[in-house]
Amino acid sequence: MVTTPGLPITPTPARPAETLVITWEPLPDDVPLEDEPVENTGQPLLAGALREALELAGFIQPEMLIASNFGLCATVNGDLVIKAPDWVYVQAVQPLGVAADRRSYTPTLQGAVPLVVMEFLSHKEGGEYSVKRTFPPGKWFFYEQILQIPVYVIFDPSDGLLEIYQLAAGRYELQPLTPENRCWFADMRLFLGVWQGTKEERTGYWLRWWDEAGNLLPWAVEQIAQERQQAEQERQRAEQEHQRAERLAEYLRSQGVDPNSL
């Protein structure tokens, strides 16, 4: 604010935000990707469990990209920016020309903008809420303003707090959850919500998928248990039918009727 004795106070004009020039360029082969270890053993389990349920449900198609700790790229004002969300879902990507693993993904250039990104909170500050726009930009700013990803999920595995933000008029807005602590993803035709229990060596809060009817999409171990239970129920029904037939045959014989002649 500028002041001059004897003159009215006039506010200093606000500096306009720097215009962002965003281009979509392939990641050069000689650019190394960060090779940092995950922050804890729970993060890969959470990400893997989300994908596992979708795969068993037949949701995943060849044109989709679902990955964890995978680099999303954009060039902002000439600087290459790479962020690796804990989980990302892209509805349609261009196929690779050769049989190879993807090192990274550049939206628009290589396919659609991701539909969903997720970040799992930990004791280490990871910038999940950072709106820093200068290089390197914060995660929130990168997902919201640069990539413009429709859905941003922030999940705290320590207490089960789930925050789901949806892009509206260029800004993320917090979405309400159902009484069951779930949120409907219309483009996926699935609910995402919080579930508490044990999988592998981890006991705690998990992110899970539910279908439109409210049925939980099972993990492999749960599906196997369900199939075993169904098989046992079928065995018990067959055994009960066999016993009923034996009782009927015994009754017929007691009446002088040979059941084999019927």
UniProtKB/TrEMBL annotation:
InterPro entries: Uma2. Residues 221-255 form a coiled coil. It comes from the Bacteria. Pfam families: Uma2. Keywords: Coiled coil. Residues 83-181 form the Putative restriction endonuclease domain. This is Putative restriction endonuclease domain-containing protein. It comes from Stenomitos frigidus ULC18.
